[in-house]
Amino acid sequence: MNYFVGYRCSLCKAEYPPSAVTYTCPKDGGNLDVWLDYDAIRRSGEPDVMLSPEEPGLWKYLPLLPVKDPGKAGTALRSAGGTPVYSIPRLAAGLGLEYLWVKDESRNPSASFKDRASALVVARAREINASVVVTASTGNAGAALACMAAAANQKAIIFAPRTAPQAKIAQLLIFGARVLLVDGSYDDAFDLTIKASQEFGWYCRNTGYNPFTAEGKKTAALEIWDWWRKIPADMNNDQRWGPSIDALMRHPLNVFIPVGDGNIISGIHKGFRDLAALGWIEQIPRLFGVQAEGSAAIANAFYSGSETIVPVSARTLADSISVDLPRDGVRAVRAVRETRGQYLLVSDAEILAAIVELGREGIFAEPAGAAAYAGLVKAVGQGLILPEDPVLVLNTGSGLKDVKAAMQAVREAPVIEPTLAAVRLVIQ
Ligand SMILES: [Zn+2]
């Protein structure tokens, strides 16, 4: 059963049936929200009846997605999402927090959050018989599209800046996508991709521009909701938590999300809004957006109290969130404003320190993913998060994707002669 009934423009509120538009609002270029028949979903049953617990990944939430089941299309496509949540008690203690978790998106098939969006776009591409799917990418979105496309035997073309980290470019090539490295920024690649898709009739996955990317990303919110609602039962089975369950559930969950073009945080907000429209969630978590100081166009708009996104000249080592003109900025501002969250800015030095901190808990985050934790450190310092506030941090990608950045966060290992004397010398 598919409950996809149309699109609604986030700016002018115009509504369109599914077949009328493909990307953004024809009137004003606004990002389109996918609209579902919420009444029909609600009438169909309670969440535990509607959802498919046997599915390992995001397809568990198929009734809330605007696509049909991709069927037997490859394992990678089927296993996107369903990422684990870890508690990180030592970091929690260091920050003086009682409850702190990381949702580790590096466990997706191509090792980043972007697999969620690409799984949905590739499923949509199959439905509309698109011969080629194309995307601009700083690396992760492209790797995700290349991975999902390979699994579905779908042709994919990726435009990435030539400065994208080598590991991400390697992924694109290994997954068999056609790769074009643009001598320019992510924003240059983005604009070129749209022109090329119009010229050659390709289906464009560009983040935010294609309304299905946010629908894929919203599945993280559905998983967070599913995990959070089961916590009291899980805690009851775990004696260590004891009597603090009631205290925990009195506070809203606080979710820290790295923000570049704004599509992850707007997609997660959409997931929670869908759940609220269904009456399946009582309280939407507070969303905290974290941007790099050198790529802060959305935070700037938030601080100025407006929704006007003024482009910046982005400069940060966190390539995944390095964006001049965010393509989903308005909804990203609203995601934080409407959930009573906050935007935080972090420096590259703070991001590198966060990579090391997360590493001490066994989590290897890429710079953008670590930025979310760096934002939490700042929020605690500013008194925005109190000791009893439960916090979930989203690590959006694996540190293996950008080893060069990781090596800036640590000291080089010493090279020694193969003798005990040499060992004694260095361990003193
Ligand atoms: Zn519009």
Question: Given the helix and strand composition, which structural class is it?
Answer: alpha/beta
Shape: globular
Helix content class: 40-55%
Give the quaternary arrangement of the chains.
Answer: single chain
Distance between the termini: 66 Å
Rg (CA only): 21 Å
Name every ligand kind in the structure.
Answer: zinc ion
Low-confidence stretches: none
Q: Count the beta strands.
A: 13
How many DSSP H or I helices? 18
Main sheet specs: 6 strands, mixed
Beta-strand content bin: 5-15%
Mean pLDDT: 94
Describe this structure in words.
By secondary structure, the chain is of the alpha/beta class. The longest helix has 19 residues. The chain binds zinc ion. The site of zinc ion (ZN) has 8 residues, from loops. Zinc ion binds next to loops.
Précis, in short:
This protein is an alpha/beta fold and 428 residues long.
List the SSEs and their pairings.
Blueprint: E1 4-9, E2 15-16, E3 32-36, H1 38-44, H2 47-50, H3 75-78, E4 85-87, H4 89-95, E5 100-104, H5 115-127, E6 132-136, H6 140-151, E7 155-161, H7 166-174, E8 178-182, H8 186-200, E9 203-204, H9 211-229, H10 231-236, H11 244-249, E10 254-258, H12 263-278, E11 286-292, H13 297-303, H14 329-338, E12 342-346, H15 348-359, H16 367-381, E13 391-395, H17 403-407, H18 420-427
Parallel strand pairs: 5-13, 6-7, 6-9, 7-8, 10-11, 10-13, 11-12
Antiparallel strand pairs: 1-2, 1-3, 4-5
Helix pairs in contact: 5-6, 5-9, 6-7, 9-12, 12-14, 13-14, 15-16
Bound molecules: zinc ion.
